[in-house]
Write a structure and sequence with these properties.
By secondary structure, the chain is α+β, with helices and mostly antiparallel strands. It has helices spanning 6-9, 11-16, 22-30, 102-114, 119-155, 209-222, 233-240, 243-253, 259-267, 271-282, and strands at residues 42-44, 53-59, 84-90, 94-100, 157-160, 172-175, 183-185, 227-232, 286-289, 292-299, 304-311, 318-322, 327-332, 341-345, 350-357, 362-375, 382-385. The chain folds into two domains: 9-60 and 83-177 and 323-385, Super Roll (putative capsid protein of prophage fold); 188-289, no CATH class. The strands form five sheets. Strands 1, 4, 13, 14, 15 and 16 form a six-stranded mixed sheet that branches. It has a five-stranded mixed sheet with strand order 7-17-12-8-9. It has a two-stranded antiparallel ribbon with strand order 2-3.
Length: 388
Amino acid sequence: MDAYSINFYDLLSRALGAGESIQSFLDNTMALKYNTLQLDGFTFEPFMQTDFAYEQIVGELAQNPVAQYYDLDSPALPDAPAGFKSYTGKIPRMKKVEYFNEDKLRKMKLVEDRRSSTPAQIAEIAYQQLFITVDALIGGHTNALTYQRHQAVSTGKFVISATNNPKGVNGITLDYHVPAANKTTLSGTARWWTSATHTTANEGSASDPIKDLKDVVAKARYAGVRGHFEVEIDYLKEVLAHSKVLAVLGAALLPASDSTAQVAYAGIQPYERQIATLATIIGAPIKAIDSLVPIQSIDKAERAFVTANTNAFEKNVFVFVPDGNIGVVKTVEPIAIEGGQYGSFYGGKLLLTVGVDYVKKCQSFNTEMTSLVIPEVPQYMWYLFPNA
């Protein structure tokens, strides 16, 4: 019976022994290596909530209107208090699971037997397998939150669809209420490109990227907002190659009368210098978003899972984003039933539950996290869609 004891199928006991718990493993080992969250401008709320309903509080920018002039004996009238709006919705739950099944265990046992492994070597093999298993789970939630953040900023909403959530629920749209007046969509020949192929031959004859970006900055300035543009990196590279952008960059970078030489000079500059120069010209910093997240879908024809990278930040849009904090990440507190094997990550927001199925002879590692990225200043975010 020794070969079939639960110890053989218990990856935790084999990897950690009696000296370390799954929580200490998460705290000490997993904190050292996993892909980092990209939540710029958003912070986790300090307290988790007990129910799934969330409230989006849209507050007004704190401003100090100029002092008013009155008759000497007339009392001053108070300024109107800063207003706010609120919207409600439900926070969706994210889940992942990894099974350490009989097939994986038999392969590990085969390696151990062939190597005549010592107890220390066996523990090391199991420890590595545990790390790989848990790292994949935590990384999945990390990527999901990063994707939420970039979708919220680049689209003004978060859509759960069959494309980004093929194995779960879909058809859910969480709208973050960006005012329609904050969205500019170019049309006709004013589009930067009039075709899906972004080449010089397809540039709109009346396109003027520099003016369009300056117009957005002007709107933000008159609203009293300081901020920066965010744009997907590959799309930004295409914009930098636009003939009218190159002409302006060249004139700024090369003080010469030969426009051809100016364009050629601008075109060979490193992207960092091109971006910095463009930012100076339009009057606002530009942040290139380079973020790919893997999404697994089901290929019904091949009867297989297919994983492909997708851009977390949408292309074909420039978003003017206020500097500093622009929103929060709300989380529903997870619940664990007493008696199980549990661990938590991200300050208790992610719950890891380890289960055992004695019949199927497998151990499951289940994670859940009920968190949602919510912008709180959507009225101070401006969107420019250059080619509709």
